[in-house]
Amino acid sequence: MEGSGAGKSFEDALIDRLKTGEEAAFREAIRDYSPGMLAVARFYLDHSSAEEIVQDCWVTVIDAVQKFEGRSGLKTWLHRIVANRCKNRLRTANREVATDFSETLEPELANRFNSTGRWDLPPKLQFHDSADTLMENGALSDCLDKHLSALPETQRSALMLYEAHQHKSDDVCNILDVSASNLRVLLHRARQKIFLMVETFQETGEC
């Protein structure tokens, strides 16, 4: 891909290719950006409806990318399209997003986090070179995937956008249409559940 635009970032080069209608560029974009778009959609809708919204949004993107001016990153732009489409569907269905923004944290975890929602005392994971440990780490990864899937949609979406997809907090608030304080609570709740899972796994070896 490096020859597709000297001096341009991968994303800028991809946008140029998308604007030319290159099919391979759309396949790459769908592969790379669909997981984040689905995370946004699942904040608002059930899984099947979220997948449908993401598919519909890609049809929109094929035409709308010609008007993309680069005022935000491509990822942020795509996520906002998904969020707006989800909000429109909810308004049409006269439904509201159910979220729990209680500030309460589990007492045993309250001192693990600082005022920004980051861990002050993160889990202590120990890695060695033995085959047994590599297998254990694989089991931990599987356990993490299981617990992420079990999180409430609102918490998982906030966590994935902020941590996995590396959006700034302001962008996550705009995409999910939540306040900064509400986002902090969603992240607190998601992190404390994942934290407990990791510590339990470390102590017992069980998920």
Write up what this structure looks like.
This protein has helices at residues 10-19, 23-44, 47-64, 74-93, 131-150, 153-164, 169-176, 180-204. Helix 2 (23-44) crosses helix 3 (47-64) and helix 2 packs across helix 6. With 207 residues, the chain is mostly helical.
Strand content: under 5%
Output mean pLDDT.
Answer: 77
How would you classify the helix and strand content by structural class? mainly alpha
What distance lies between the first and last C-alpha atoms, to the nearest angstrom? 41 Å
Largest sheet: none
Q: What share of the residues lie within helices?
A: 55-70%
What does the overall shape look like?
globular
Number of helices: 8
Provide the succession of SSEs: HHHHHHHH
* Rg estimate, integer Å: 19 Å
Stretches where pLDDT falls below 50 for ≥5 residues?
Answer: 1-5, 123-132
Number of strands: 0
List keywords for this structure.
about 210 residues, mainly alpha, 8 helices
Can you summarize this structure?
By secondary structure, the chain is mainly α. 65% of the residues lie in helices and 0% in strands.
